[in-house]
Design a protein that fits this description.
- The protein is α/β, with parallel strands linked by helices.
- It contains seven helices and five strands, in the order E-H-E-H-E-H-E-H-H-E-H-H.
- 33% of the residues are buried.
- Strand 2, helix 2 and strand 3 form a beta-alpha-beta unit.
- Strands 2-3-1-4-5 form a five-stranded parallel β-sheet, with helices on both faces.
């Protein structure tokens, strides 16, 4: 396994799928599969192995849940790795989260604030280990390529999994009315 590994530690709905595709296009094979990563990490913990043992034979980058909640464990297990905190405009993120998962604006904002604060605190002394990256806001190749020390590709940056307009409209309505029910129940 060649270090450093790259970990996308943004919360879901912050461009993690786009990040995974971009990393792969830059030559860093990336795993973006929550169930697989969660299962393998649990099995490896129980066996006393590094959390991503086996997966790091094929992938050098990982993004999405549960990578985002494992960032401290991964930082300790894989010293010298690079971490990418994908972020986006918080109100639009809340709408996207409610559209997919339901819940309330307050609970999603609380999760956001706690995660961003924990990541920021963890890497405060090591700014070269963390890139805060706003894919949804239009940041393209330049920040990630500079962070990873690779040339920018001559192609458009990949943008995937945008919230469908109907689902986003229902989520905006849920936020506006303070509903806590699942915004996609009629989908």
């Amino acid at each position: 396994m060649a270090l450093p590994l790259i970990f996308g530690i943004g919360m879901n709905k912050t461009g993690t799928k786009s990040l995974a595709i971009a990393l792969s296009r830059l030559g860093f094979p990336c795993k973006h599969a929550a169930r697989t990563i969660k299962r393998v990490a649990q099995q490896n913990r129980e066996a006393g192995r590094l959390p991503l043992a086996g997966l790091t034979d094929e992938y050098v980058a990982f993004a999405d849940s549960p990578i985002n909640v494992m960032f401290k464990e991964l930082d300790e297990a894989y010293p010298g790795s690079k971490f990418i905190l994908t972020v986006r405009d918080v109100p639009s993120w809340v709408i996207s989260r409610i559209a997919q998962f339901g819940g309330t604006e307050k609970e999603h904002r609380r999760k956001w604030d706690a995660h961003v604060a924990a990541v920021t605190m963890r890497f405060a002394e090591r700014p070269r280990s963390l890139l805060t990256y706003d894919i949804c806001g239009g940041e393209g190749w330049q920040p990630i390529c500079a962070f990873l020390g690779v040339p920018e590709p001559d192609q458009c940056f990949p943008h995937k999994n945008r919230t469908p307009p109907g689902r986003a409209r229902r989520a905006r309505e849920a936020v506006a009315t303070g509903l806590s029910s699942r915004a996609t129940s009629s989908s």
